[in-house]
Amino acid sequence: MKKPEVAGADANSGAASTSASGASKNPSATAAGKLAIKQERGQITYDALIEAGFKLLVERDIEDISIFDLARVAGYSVGAFYARFRSKDEFFDALIERHLERRTATQKCLVETLAREALVPDLISNIVDYYWNHHVFWRAVIRRTLRDPALWEPFRQHFSENLDRFTARVEQEIRRPLTEKEVRSITFAFQTVMGTINISIINQPGPVFIGQDLFKEELTRAFVQVSGLDEILGGT
Fold first, then answer.
1. What per-residue confidence (pLDDT) applies to 143?
2. Taking the CA of residue 106 as centre, how many other CA atoms within 13 Å lie in the half-sphere pointing to its CB?
């Protein structure tokens, strides 16, 4: 005798099929999720190593910092370091990249948000404080570029981009384009600031030292004089 068909059997079969089909897709979704978690954890480890590098470079030269030291301060193994960097030189390249990212973001924010009267003094103060607080790192950068001047290229690009943002802000304030001479003066003023900071970090010649408030005051005054900014802004 033919067994009666069970109502909904096809629907259940379809549901089972759909469920099976959905299940077949889950491994891919799970794999993607695991990959995302792995990448996130990898970035956390990378960031921790970078922060450990900056922390150790507050008081110690890069030559005196071992890979074991970096891993220990970051809270990871030496193997975790080598999974991300092939050498300490490559790690230092990553520190430079992070430095440029941070300085670009900070200077962009300052140039866009500072009030007109605070633009120069607060910007110069921020620049001086940053490089003084990271003077061991920056001294290592200078020494490295002395051995290979081509390594200055990303810093030149960084300088150029920040200069463009600053001059754009000045043009916004005066409501006219800057002349070629005015741009040249502002460019040399920034060059004067960074040159003075670099010399002070390398050998602290004095008599005014980079850690003093007077250093920032005098550097701000020098920037205004060299750039002719008072005259430029005063003409509006």
1. 93
2. 14
